[in-house]
Automatic annotation (TrEMBL):
Similarity comment text for this entry: Belongs to the UPRTase family.
Gene3D superfamilies, sorted: 3.40.50.2020
Boundaries of every Phosphoribosyltransferase domain copy: 23-224
UniProt entry keywords in alphabetical sequence: Allosteric enzyme, Glycosyltransferase, GTP-binding, Nucleotide-binding, Transferase
The protein, known as: uracil phosphoribosyltransferase
Amino acid sequence: MSITNHTSKALPENIPPNVITLPQTAQLEALYTIIRDKETSRGDFIFYTDRIIRLLVEEGLNHLPVVPRTVETPTGAKYEGVGFEGRICGVSILRAGEAMEAGLREVCRSVRIGKILIQRDEETTLPKLFYSKFPSDIASRYVLLLDPMLATGGSAMKAVEVLQSEGVPEERIIFINLISSPEGLKKFCERFPSLKIITGWIDEGLNEKAYIIPGLGDFGERRYCQ
Ligand code: URA
């Protein structure tokens, strides 16, 4: 048996350039092993998904542009540092994305958060917008779009379209999720090549019911219902 602090799992090949994964450490894999386990209690599922969400949000903030900012320290010296260029807001895709809001608030105090509800239209089978609420100045903000699972990508792509119709350019959206399918990533990145995706793990694929494999099952069920 060998002991290492890096996971033995390799990232899939041909990941689109605008996809950023968390560092694939053994610690991260241990967290994913817990949340994937069907025997994990709801309390532990919440605790460990929250830990991953925090890492994802921190990584998302690494991709926001900064501008020079000089401050004076209590010693009287000047420090030439940086500050974030613009303001941000979160937008959660209901309902599972709401679970990521607290993680964003922990890192960005009093951050504005919008919401968007997309469901399958029973007639057309296409994703349809049912509800949205955004900060009135969303067009001038960077948007962290929150949804834990990128499976087929249908809802997330619809959410980006809605944000664009509110005046948010693609380049100012960062989509954050815990687990992605390669199929969903490919479709999403072909459609929105300038948008960044921060994902914790890229899984093997989708099953016939569009669940991510190996995945973790239904995120919303496990977080809210067990
Ligand atoms: N949503 C989930 O909660 N799980 C999946 O595997 C896919 C979409």
